[in-house]
Amino acid sequence: MKFLTDIRLLLLGLWLGAAVFFIGVAQTAFAVLPQRELAGAVVGRTLTILNFAGLAIAVLLLLLSAVAARNSRKLLLWLDRSLLVIVALACAVGQFVIGFWLATVRAQMGGRPIDELAVDDPLRIQFNQLHEYSVWVLFTGMVAALIAFFVIANRVRSGSAVAAATSPSSASTSDPFDFSKPFKKT
Fold it and tell me: Domain range holding 63?
């Protein structure tokens, strides 16, 4: 069971790390590429990959939570599942709702770069608002993933404490990496 929890933590940490790395990629793309349209294309493509990966990982982790539900407190289990639903919803809304509206606004611009539109142009204002929504949705998913990471890790400790209370003889030999006891000299 610990192996399954480790896999769940690894997948969640992988997506969270990718999301943090995406922020750096977005800033670097706009700082380095000669045209903002090229940077936007790189960021948009990368965000698509991040959203689909987040959606897939969140659904997989939700399915695995049914298997990992033994020896855990119900409150932490449902908190874990709720946070994973938030991650999945954030990725789905970012990709399928906000992404769709951004593409619609871009199509209404007639292929012109965003920077060519006046600051008070309604299409540019709408694009900027959708971009802000996208940032906040991704941030919400990242915060939910971070909290879920710690909840899943805490479930391991609380589950092992329950197992240790019910069966002290098996708890002492079940985890070979338990460093809470002092080392023995041989």
Answer: 2-160
